[in-house]
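Long-time lurker. I teach an intro course on protein structure, and each term I like to show students one example going from raw sequence to a predicted 3D structure in token notation. This year I'd like something fresh instead of my usual example. Would anyone be willing to generate the tokens for the chain below so I can use it in lecture? Attribution to the forum is fine with me.
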Amino acid sequence: MAFDGIVTKTIINELNKNIIGAKINKVFEPTKSDIILGLYCNGKNYALNICINPDNCRLHLTTHSKANPQIAPNFCMLLRKHLIGSRILAISSYDLERTIEFTLETYNEINDKITKKLIIEIMGHFSNVILVNEKGFIIDCLRHFENPRELMPTRFYEPVSSNKISFANVSLEKFLQIIKLGIPLDTQLSDLFIGISKSFVQNLCILLNIELNNFSSSDLEKLFATISNIISDLNSNICTYSLNKDDYFIVSDSNKENLQVNFFIDDFYYKKEQQELFVNTRNRILKIVLGELKKYQKRLENINTKLSDCKNMDKYALYGELLTSNLYKLKGNESEVTVLNYYNNETITIILDEKLSPSKNVEKFFKKYNKLKNALIAVSKQKKETEIELEYIESLIYSINEATSISTLEEIQLEIEENFNLQIKNIPNAKNKEVKNMPLKYNINGFDVFVGKNNKQNDSLTKGASKEDLWFHTQDIHGSHVILKSTGKMVDEDTLYKCAKLAANHSKAKHSFNIPVDYCYIKYVKKPSYAKPGMVTYTNYKTIFVK
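-- Reply from a regular --
Happy to contribute to a lecture. Here you go:
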């Protein structure tokens, strides 16, 4: 749901009940769109989160911490100068507008008591945080605008003006007159009334069993009564949230707990932002890895072209040999010569360079043969190395697609940076940070079983296992290393099968029907010195087919 005027009013009422008189003792700016105010009130510490991100703009108390930059941004330093030590006298908004005004009591340079205002405008792409002095002039704002309103330092602050109607001032008769048939209710109400969003009307219509496009007068009366009750109860501070799948909306509830909506909104948007951060991070890393994949595929294509050319090297050696044995027949300046191939007693026509002498043509063919012969050795080695790189990149792509958390992606990112000499930018919380991410752990028939979530974890698990532990992996298929800690005990067939099934479920073939899974003791698993992360060789293995 959009953070509309009804949600805003509910949040403000809860804040008025709990943090009036609070002292601002900390100010942080974790991102370009977030301001965190540390508050102390009645023996309790609170954190007020102000977010002006266009997709998630909002205001509420928070219990979730955010990483702060080492050097505070300029606007954060300005807020610290003006706000730290001040007290909150009032929190207000006009009607259901999404402009929240904090009236603050503080002291000027000569220790006289003055008031300043911190104004939060929640308006999508035009959202802003504005600090205003006691005379109404802007000290500074988080975002500077010249259009459609001038929001710049030293300018007089003008509140947002709206042409919409206040729902509280509309009677039922007037409501029935202005709502037209044939236009969806959510569109009409959001366009006509202050602070009412489409998603609020959509959820309310679902609750009241009213169709958005096909409604009667009785439906409108029921909708009007419900919205009127909610708006009336906003001032009584008894409204709370109601969930509808992955959405929420405000309803009346006399059993409302203290700060219930604030902390619900906090958790709701925290989960949403974490999911968005995860998806964006995964897509960024995947884009880089796919770029490397494309580069190595192009390299392999060029290598195969060179190898195709090398197939002709014996032909050039034959040409040189036959020309050498027939030099006495050549006078020079010939464009071609037909000679007997004494290997098969057939005649063969050899194209010559007219500008070169017969002996120089012979030298040219042998030189080309030797060049292709040397190239074959070098290019064959390059092909093997490129195929290893491609196999490794495929394993990275599998790990990225299987990742379920930011910490797992951060670990994969560090691996990519180390192995491709890349520096991935714009991925939050990934650099200069000790990644704490553990492999998956299961208990199968009393045995501890561990599953790596990426190549680094696979290496760590295999390296840290004892010689008698069992190692499982899908045969010739990208997947996780699975380690069964045997602790010297005999492992029964059922446990082996379940571990093999676990390896199959954590592999690229997890949707297949009959999956071969190899297993052996750790002492038979070796990691060559040249091997990429997650790559091993193994012997003395058996295979289980997981159905």
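Some talking points for your students: The first strand starts at residue 23 and ends at 28. The two ends are 44 Å apart (CA to CA).
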